Amino acid sequence: MFTGIVEEIGTVRHIEATRSGTRIEVAANHAIEGLEVDHSISVAGVCLTVVERDDRSFASDVVPETLARSTLGTLTRGSRVNLERAATPNTALGGHFVQGHVDAQTKLLSREAEGDGGRLRFALPKGLERYVVMKGFVTVDGVSLTIARLGKTFFEIALIPHTAERTTLGALRPGDAVNVEVDIIAKYVERITKKR
């Protein structure tokens, strides 16, 4: 479980095909602290298990299902990724409950400057419309965000300067692909009400 508050931007150091998918090695400074083999870490919004670690990087194995559903399959050496270690009972819940289980990929449609921040419009993936509400939560590349505007085929977020600087969202350009995870609470509510 994560909160969607990115700790740092890591850099992909190495990518290697394996018999079960792909092994990704990511260099990090802060997010590596206290990280051990078998721990979970969010990489671009995807929950991965640490399988190797040294003082400057960690490695995780990514299976074909995850490669197909997320943008991790398009990473190359030097790619920058948002990182967040798994939440603990002492973690401040500054964002929302994030699983790191990506629902879909989508693309940035447009970006407008708003002071030092920006207004980012993303295509709303088909099938996820019912889980996205005005002023509700959405996770984009591991970042907990609030829906600022919602249309039939898009959603917008207002990006504050701090988030633009501390996450990969600050460098996104129209056409760039991102991982999206909708609020898990909405899914549970839907499931419970369907049973009735």
Q: Main traits of this protein?
A:
196 residues, mainly beta, Elongation Factor Tu (Ef-tu), domain 3, 2 domains, 6-stranded antiparallel barrel, 6-stranded antiparallel beta barrel, 3 helices, 12 strands, 12% helix, globular
How do the helices and strands line up, and which of them pair or pack?
Layout: E1 8-18, E2 21-27, E3 40-43, E4 46-53, E5 57-62, H1 64-69, E6 80-85, E7 104-114, E8 117-123, E9 137-140, E10 143-150, E11 154-159, H2 161-166, E12 177-182, H3 184-195
Antiparallel strand pairs: 1-2, 1-6, 2-5, 3-4, 3-6, 4-5, 7-8, 7-12, 8-11, 9-10, 9-12, 10-11
- At the first level of CATH, the class of the largest domain is Mainly Beta
* Largest β sheet strand count, sense and barrel closure: 6 strands, antiparallel, barrel
Number of helices: 3
Overall geometry: globular
Class by alpha and beta content: mainly beta
Strand order of the largest sheet: 1-2-5-4-3-6
What fraction of the residues are assigned to beta strands by DSSP?
35-45%
Remind me, CATH topology of the largest domain?
Elongation Factor Tu (Ef-tu), domain 3
Q: Which ranges are low-confidence, i.e. pLDDT below 50, for 5 or more consecutive residues?
A: none
Give the fraction of residues assigned to helices.
Answer: 10-25%
